[in-house]
Structure formats: structure tokens, C-alpha cells
Write the C-alpha cells for this entry.
Amino acid sequence: RNETDGLQYAVNSTKPDWTVAQLESAKTIDPQATAMLQLPASVSLQVRNLTTHVLAAAHATTPFDKALAIQQFLTSPRFTYDVNVASSASSDALANFLLHTHRGFCQQYASAMAVMARIARIPSRVAVGFTHGEQQADGTWTVTTRDAHAWPELEFGGIGWVPFEPTPRTDGQTQVPNYAVAQSNSKAGKGGAPDQSQKIAAGKRGGKASAPVQSRAQLLDHNVEKVSTGGRAATSAAEHHGSSARAIAAWSLLVLALLFLVIPGVVRIASRRRRWRHAVTPAQEASAAWAELRASAIDADAGWIDGLSPRATARVLRAESGAFATAEIRALDRIVEAVQRAWYAPDADRARTDTLEQDVADLRIAMMAEATIWQRLARRIWPRSTMQSGRELLGRFGALLDASDMAAARLRARLRPRHAG
């Protein structure tokens, strides 16, 4: 629990200084002796083919040659360092980076080289740490989280873990190791294209200017470009089909979401219209008014209690909804009187009340009066009465399924043959 402010400590470290000869003579690690060669099955065939062509174009034979070829491929002008790329751990993101976008920051470059190295049967891992930071006026160095960095390390037999730097940063924060820089510049004469003096001599011997000879790096870029272009052409139809399917799925989900938003409100409006349309006699009108008053009270959260008498329900609504105006109290009394006549009077169909529909509408507005505009909108879109009815319907359907399962189980028990003994 002590504070770390003001603490000082010293670190002693040794920086290995490998030679090119040591790294060239390093052997491949036994695959059975390391787990750093494992690859997920999701690594695409295109990435594997790209790695094979990169190594073939560089004429790489030793593990160190292969590591240099991969690093040179990732630091070629085709790739761009960009910190505004979203990070991702999926194999699709890796293929997209290597074959299409060619844009990313240290995470993309380090993981890409680690995967390509494992495809080349070189054990690899991704190390995470910091760059050297910024030197201050007093000679000290300031390192912050902005200096976080990732780089690949490849394991060579008899040597150990060797770091590489495939991230093409130009801010001076990273540096390609000396053994990789020296070797990549000197490899042009090893199985590669001739240097400039050889090209001039060849032109003189021929008596005329010969065609420009590509450098080893240009040849590598040219060969890999053919692979990348071929891969894009081979997968353009599949990608187009996949993007179309994703677009259709997205639009379908959007339509379903919109339907989910509007269906409860539409069902509520349709139920209201159906009630009044089917109400022909005064008794039916009273029943429709009572059902509609119940739904409106539930929507407004006005404290409706099923099972109470009409007069008791009226008292609850007055108490829950605050002070009704005189006109609204009279409207509620007319509805209660019509419902009582419809339920209890022998001549229920003789007295017609033509204002019941308007009375219910006025009470619905009054019960919503104290709600905010957003509450009113939510209660119109997702009316509680409709949602409650939907839950009750789902409950009945679930009970029906349970009963069907029980009946089927009893039937199977009766049909199961009985064995003696």
C-alpha cells in the first residue's frame, strides 16, 4: 500500500549481439519440442499461400532467410503504418490486412509476422513492451503508455528468441535490428538480381542497352503482388456473396426490430377499433367501453384492479389518476351506469348511450395528463395492455405445450411393451 512516487531502482541488462553467420547457421527447432508452432484452423488458405510465395520469391532456404523475407515483405512500400485502424484478433482481420488493406499499427504487423513465421515452421511469439520514449533536456527518458509497442520474436536452434521489427514506423521510435538490416541489404547478391555494375557490364557486352533488371526487393514485390491480386480475384465473388448475405441479414434484423417496435402499438389500435366496430347493441357498447377503459387504465398505469365492481373501480381510478375534472367525472359515471345496466338490468338493450366512445377517449387523455412526453410516446408504442395480453397468450401456449408433452409421455408409457420377469 506504499506510494511509488519517488522510488528509484536500477536495472542491469545485456543486449545480445548476434552475427549474421550465427543466425544463418541456426537450425530449425524440433516441432515436437515447442508449442510455438501451433496455428488456429481459422488461418485462411490465402494467408498460407501468400507466405509460401513470399518465401519462394525471396529464394529463402534457411530459417533466418525466411524470417528476413517476411520482415522485408511487411516493411515494403505496399504497407502503411496507421494507428487509426481498429484492432482485432480474428483471422479474417489478419487476411484482410495482408491481402487487401495493407494498413495497421504494431499489433497487426507483429501478429502477421508471427503467423507467417509459424507457417514457415519457425517458432514465434509476440512480445509486448515499450519503445525508448522521448529524451528530455536533462538527459532522462520519458516513457508513457503512448509508447506501447508490440514486436515478433522468432526462436532459432542454439540461439534462442531473436526479435525482429516488421512495423514500418518513421517516427524514430523503432529500429530494425542490425543483423536484419545488414543481411537484407547484402542478400541481393545471394541468389538474387545482379547489382548495378553487373547490369552496365551486361549492356556493354551486348552492344546495346539491355532491359532494366529488377532488384531483389522489386522482384519480391512483383511476385507477391501477383499472388495478392490473384487471391483477390479468386475471392471477389465469394466476398461479394458474403457481403450481400450480411447486408440481407442486417436489413432483415432492422425490419424485425422495426416490427417489434410498432407491432404492439398497432395491435392496440386494431383492438380498440374492433371493439367499437363489433358493438351493435347498447349492452355490447357498454361492454366495449368497459374493456377499452380497462386497457386505457393499464396503459396509463392508473392502478386498475380486476375483480372490483364498476363503482369500486371508479373510486380507484379517481384516486390513482388525481383530480379528474367535472366533465371527466361525469364521463366515468356514464360508463359505470351503462356497464351496471348492461350487467344487471333486465332491459339492458333499451337505453343507448351514444357518448361512451368519446367518454373513454376523454378519460384516456386525462389518465395520461401527468405523464411526460417520452412516457406518453413509450406507452403508445408499447402499450402495457397489449404486452400483458401477449404474455398471457404465451403462457397459455406454454401450458398447452406442457400438456401435450405430458399426454405424449403417458401415451408412450401405455404403448411401451411390458417384459415378463
